[in-house]
Write a structure and sequence with these properties.
The structure holds 2 protein chains of 2 kinds.
Chain A: H1 5-30, H2 38-56, H3 59-83, H4 88-109, H5 133-140, H6 143-160, H7 163-173, H8 175-180, H9 185-212, H10 223-233, H11 238-258, H12 265-282
Helix pairs in contact in A: 1-6, 1-9, 1-10, 1-11, 2-3, 2-4, 2-9, 2-10, 3-9, 6-7, 10-11, 10-12, 11-12
Chain B: E1 9-20, E2 23-34, E3 38-43, H1 49-56, E4 64-69, E5 72-73, H2 80-85, E6 88-91, H3 103-108, H4 121-135, H5 150-163, E7 168-172, H6 180-195, E8 199-204, H7 207-213, E9 216-221, E10 224-230, H8 236-243, E11 262-273, E12 276-287, E13 291-295, H9 302-310, E14 317-322, E15 325-326, H10 332-337, E16 340-343, H11 347-350, H12 358-363, E17 373-374, E18 377-378, H13 380-393, H14 410-423, E19 428-432, H15 440-455, E20 459-463, H16 467-473, E21 476-481, E22 484-490, H17 496-503
Parallel strand pairs in B: 3-8, 3-9, 6-7, 7-8, 13-20, 13-21, 16-19, 19-20
Antiparallel strand pairs in B: 1-2, 1-4, 4-5, 9-10, 11-12, 11-14, 14-15, 17-18, 21-22
The chains are: A mainly alpha, B alpha/beta.
Chain lengths: ~300, ~500
């Protein structure tokens, strides 16, 4: 039997980092900034997450470190693509390449301390409930997965029901309208990128601290881009983005499972990436927030 | 907010200047706006009208001068948020609406606070309905703005201002995008606002609107304030004289040169798309030195006529020849090189690239010519010289040739198009609505260039919805109706009644 509870949990573990990073991308792009650097920010979050978890000895401190590293990277992105502004595509790609170098370098320096795995993250059901299979399952779901789902509700409400959400979406759709409503476009985008960076860093920490519990060079291996793809797949709406992330998680979990059936592991690992290409080919373009990718120059 | 009784001062601008680099967009302009009055700002394209209002609305910071709103000096930190808080509302010429958002979202958005996590949507909706009822708007709050017509979008903009509680309303060229009926309705509404005690500013280059409506008219020219005239103190001619530095010769000369060989010969040209005849057996000839007018209610084949000649659409039957040589299926590029120039109806879509500089726009389509490039490498020096020459020759008002085209006013953009097309010494010029949306100095200039081109021996096909323009410039006018040429009228024998019935298709058999 391939599809058991363990399979669902495995898919969730894989999807969690994607879900969190995708949420960051969603916020940035709803504010009109192309967040191509998500991959690099995620990678930094992954490294600093492990560093925090190992040096402080608490996985939750790792999460905080990863998130903080992400916020800093988000602000760097803001300076480069919003304040200056430079081309968002070029800068995103440059950030990703720079992040690989930076994280590998720091990883070498700290290599001796990162030999063992970071402390595990999780909780177990209180004694009375551990007998109940449903409760046991709910407690087996990684805590960061729960956090991700809660964040989706929060972000959905903030973007589509609250006043700041409407203002932020207006910035992403039409800077002229936003400006003539007196909105400080640069400030809004800076804050959005700080949030987006924080979430991408958190997603990176979810990958290392919350799941594999160690770091390796380029450990994200394109997951930031898959998160980006999930946002496009979800047409910039939280619930469809969440669905896209879960789909990608399922794909990769399937790949891990089918190795048991024999054959080349790389073939199965290829599946989620093929799925990404397929989804992107069929997802509608043209519903992106209008200002995404356009540098905003003040008068 | 200070007392807003009719006649009391709403805003006083004192000695406002605004410089972009060394270019003075505004030079010492002083204007006073009062409640219960309509103030018109008139001037040529690029005279500084919009710049002045952008300063008042906090989008631009003035280089000098001071602003008093409700009698109080606003100081140097004046932002759009402040302007809105002081009950100033502005509608830009190009609307500031989010097409993907609903009417209600667009209207409420500027008044929302960043800290408001649970907005009272129900109340906003009620307030929207009240305002709509009060001013007679019929808009559904949940429709996406992108699905509305241009006139309705303007209503959304007006409602947006009113919803913000604006008492000082600024409208930048509000009638430019409207049909005559819609624009009459808008002007009536402005009078209604005035009577309710609002201070209204209308930026326009339609002088008759300004004279009909405004209690005061301020005339700007090249950023300087020429005069502020009270109602009844000036005539159209007076104000027109103030707007332009030199006396405008409103009566156009028609080309008087002898008519030469046939340049363009269209023989039974038809264009069928999905069984609809967009052009139906059109035959016409344009000779050297002649301006042939094409009239008709918009959408009766004018665009298709222009596009088949330049090669954007291929004909389904008939032939088009230039100097007797049939064009067949030759490419647009070959046709342009063969001496056809086109001034398209929609310059943004078909004639210019706003994000590129003026020099690039001047050589676009001609960049392969030896003077501009050798073996695919652009000769920047020659291009810069050519652009400089064109800017002077065609009177483009700009700081430099490196300015992005989109920063020019509409009239100056059109001059770039005309300059590029005429510099190639074309044998046939297709001019489709060449003066649409331009102020009358630019209009007069562009018409004059067309006449000169004809006198120099080119054939001109002038497609226009402006009958005065057609009658002034062309010798003969062809009337299109449902893709057919239903009549040709000599401009000298123009009879409005007869012409109108031709355009309405009454004589189409």
């Amino acid at each position: 039997m391939i599809f058991d509870l363990e399979f669902v949990l495995s898919a969730l573990r894989i999807a969690t980092p994607l879900m969190i990073v995708a949420l960051g991308v969603l916020i940035a792009e709803r504010a009109g900034v192309l967040f191509l650097g998500a991959e690099g920010v995620m990678l930094c979050g992954a490294l600093f997450g492990i560093l925090g978890a190992v040096y402080v000895g608490d996985p939750w401190m790792g999460v905080v470190w990863g998130l903080s590293a992400g916020v800093v990277m988000g602000l760097v992105t803001a300076v480069l693509t919003v304040w200056l502004p430079t081309d968002q595509v070029v800068m995103g790609l440059a950030m990703n390449i720079a992040a690989i170098g930076l994280t590998s370098f720091i990883f070498r320096i700290a290599a001796d301390d990162l030999q063992q795995m970071s402390p595990p993250m999780g909780w177990s059901a209180p004694g009375a409930l551990s007998e109940n299979p449903i409760a046991a399952f709910l407690f087996a779901v990684p805590p960061l997965a729960w956090l991700a789902v809660i964040l989706y509700f929060v972000v959905w409400y903030m973007l589509f029901r609250s006043a700041p959400g409407l203002l932020l979406r207006s910035v992403g759709q039409n800077v002229k309208a936003a400006r003539s409503a007196g909105i400080n476009v640069v400030l809004v985008r800076t804050v959005a990128l700080a949030l987006a960076g924080g979430l991408a860093g958190l997603g990176g920490a979810a990958l290392t601290v919350g799941w594999v519990r160690s770091f390796a060079d380029d450990i994200t291996a394109g997951r930031g881009f898959i998160a980006l793809a999930a946002v496009y797949f979800g047409r910039w709406y939280p619930r469809w983005t969440l669905f896209g992330c879960l789909l990608f998680g399922l794909g990769e979990a399937l790949a891990l499972r089918t190795q048991v059936l024999g054959g080349n592991a790389h073939f199965y690992l290829m599946i989620p990436y093929l799925l990404t290409v397929g989804v992107l080919a069929f997802a509608e373009r043209g519903c992106a927030p209008r200002e995404v990718g356009k540098p905003y120059e003040q008068l | 907010m200070v007392e807003a009784s009719p006649g009391s001062e709403a805003v006083r601008l004192e000695g406002i200047s605004k410089a972009f680099g060394s270019f003075k967009a505004l030079d010492n302009v002083s204007v006073t706006l009062r409640y219960g009055e309509i103030h018109a700002l008139v001037g040529e394209n690029g005279a500084g009208k919009s710049t002045l209002m952008n300063v008042l609305y906090g989008i631009l910071q003035p280089s000098a001068g001071r602003m008093l709103v409700g009698g109080q000096d606003v100081g140097s930190h004046w932002s759009t948020r402040d302007a809105i808080a002081h009950q100033i509302g502005m509608i830009h010429q190009h609307f500031s609406l989010v097409m993907e958002h609903s009417v209600l979202d667009n209207i409420v958005m500027p008044t929302l606070k960043w800290t408001d996590l649970a907005p009272k949507w129900g109340q906003y909706r009620e307030r929207f309905s009240e305002l709509s009822a009060q001013f007679g708007f019929e808009l559904s709050p949940d429709t996406l703005v992108g699905k509305l017509s241009v006139g309705q979008r303007q209503q959304v903009e007006i409602l947006k201002m009113l919803y913000q509680g604006a008492k000082i309303l600024i409208l930048d060229e509000p009638t430019a995008v409207l049909t005559p009926q819609q624009s009459d309705r808008l002007l009536e509404m402005l009078l209604q606002f005035r009577d309710r005690g609002y201070a209204v500013v209308i930026i326009t280059h339609k002088l008759e609107h300004a004279l009909d409506l405004a209690d005061h008219i301020t005339v700007l020219r090249n950023g300087r304030q020429i005069a502020t005239v009270a109602k009844g103190e000036g005539t159209i001619a007076d104000i027109a004289r103030m707007m332009v530095s030199q006396e405008v010769n409103t009566a156009q000369r028609r080309s008087r040169s002898a008519v030469g060989e046939v340049v363009l010969d269209m023989d039974n040209v038809s264009l069928d798309v999905d069984g609809v005849a967009l052009l139906d057996k059109i035959s016409l000839q344009v000779r050297e030195g002649e301006i042939l007018g094409v009239a008709g209610v918009a959408g009766n084949g004018q665009s298709e006529l222009a596009e088949t000649i330049i090669g954007l659409q291929s004909t389904t039957a008939g032939s088009i020849s230039i100097y007797g040589k049939e064009l067949g299926t030759t490419s647009v590029e070959a046709r342009r090189r063969g001496g056809i120039a086109i001034i398209p109806e929609d310059r943004h879509a078909h004639a210019v690239v706003g994000e590129m500089d003026i020099a690039s726009n001047f050589i676009m389509g001609h960049e392969g010519e030896p003077q501009f490039s050798r073996r695919g490498i652009l000769n920047r020096k020659n291009i810069a010289e050519f652009a400089k020459h064109c800017i002077a020759e065609f009177d483009v008002r700009t700081r430099s040739a490196e300015t992005k085209l989109e920063f020019l006013s509409g009239g100056n953009q059109q001059k770039v198009v005309i300059g590029r097309e005429l510099s190639a010494n074309p044998r046939l010029i297709i001019a489709h609505e060449p003066a649409r949306g331009l102020d009358f100095a630019a209009t007069a200039y562009i018409r004059q260039r067309l006449v000169q081109a004809a006198e120099a021996g080119a054939g001109v096909l002038l497609i226009s919805s402006d009958l005065d323009e057609l009658m002034e410039l062309s010798t003969r006018v062809v009337v299109l109706y449902c893709g057919r040429a239903v009549g040709t009228v000599d401009a000298d024998a123009y009879d409005p009644q007869h012409f109108g019935s031709l355009m309405a298709g009454a004589e189409a058999a």
